[in-house]
Specification:
With about 290 residues, this protein is an alpha+beta fold. Helices cover about 20% and strands about 30% of the residues. The strands form three sheets. It has a five-stranded mixed sheet with strand order 4-3-5-6-7, covered by helices on one side. A five-stranded antiparallel sheet has the order 12-11-10-13-14.
């Protein structure tokens, strides 16, 4: 799965110890070698790429025997979930549906799997890491593997061609409006390479909003002695901590209480708190 998602999971790890929940974000030397995405930018030759939805779930790697997180941790899926899966590795996403990332996370991190919850999870297969062909060939290959598995919760990610940047942006807007996270572009002539490059591109949009600073949270670790996060409140009364996106200078001299700031985020969780909120700038022109 993705870096911002990984940071969130890492942050949960300490809190989950002793609760019966797996700290899935721990990064280990046994982490699978996975293809990673760059960010799309205008000017990329779109006729070289296949387009698919970017699913709002957790990256998962089937190594032929077990499901593992991007960090290498074993996922405690029910036996029936992976029964009769092939020994060939599969790369995919454990997904509960659009806008249901927290449900997927809660299900996947359980040390003792909840059958009822896992019935709502799908494994969205989008690649075969050990297949020798280029991606255009792997599309047909992973589709065939999914058909061979013949389980409703294992699905092949659809791929299609896109004609222009304008068409891509229109598709992105539609997917986001419908509750999706974004889009992915995969170069058709690319082999599976476990690196981050332009063979795989993520196409996403961010939402911006304003909130008023109501407090400062002291920093820890390398931020000890300065601001670790801002406690902010939106115009609707939602309070949350804003802890990323700051320079060292901004942590040394943080925005004052009462200041309005702009933050970037990616959707809301069930309680209305912005997900992956990151500081952008002070907004002196925001309402007081």
């Amino acid at each position: 799965m993705r870096f911002a998602r990984r940071v969130l999971l890492r942050g949960l790890a300490a809190a989950l110890l002793g609760t019966g929940l797996a700290p899935l974000a721990a990064w280990s030397a046994d982490a699978p070698a996975l293809m990673l995405a760059n960010v799309y930018r205008p000017g990329v030759r779109l006729d070289d790429y296949w387009l698919s939805e970017k699913y709002d779930g957790l990256r998962a790697f089937w190594d032929g025997q077990r499901l593992r997180t991007r960090g290498g941790e074993t996922i405690a899926a029910p036996d029936w979930f992976t029964a009769q899966w092939p020994t060939e590795p599969m790369d995919g996403e454990l997904w509960a549906g659009r806008g249901r990332f927290e449900e997927a996370l809660s299900t996947v991190r359980q040390l003792t799997p909840d059958d009822a919850a896992w019935r709502r999870i799908r494994f969205m297969v989008f690649d075969l890491p050990t297949h020798p062909g280029v991606f255009t060939e792997r599309i047909h290959a992973y589709g065939q593997r999914v058909r061979d598995i013949n389980q409703a919760w294992v699905q092949a990610v659809p791929q299609e061609r896109i004609g222009s940047h304008a068409e891509l942006m229109a598709r992105l807007d539609r997917v986001v409006r419908e509750g999706g996270e974004g889009l992915m572009l995969h170069r058709g002539d690319a082999p599976y390479r476990a690196v981050r490059n332009d063979d795989l591109l993520k196409v996403k949009t961010h939402e911006d909003a304003e909130a008023r600073v109501i407090g400062h949270v002291p920093g820890k670790g390398r931020h000890a002695g300065r601001m670790g996060a801002l406690l902010v409140q939106t115009a609707e009364g939602v309070r949350f901590k804003l802890g990323t996106g700051f320079t060292d200078a901004e942590r040394d001299n943080p925005p004052a209480v009462g200041t309005w700031v702009t933050y970037r985020f990616r959707g809301l969780n069930d309680s209305g708190v912005p997900r992956f909120a990151s500081f952008v700038r002070v907004r002196p022109d925001a309402p007081r």
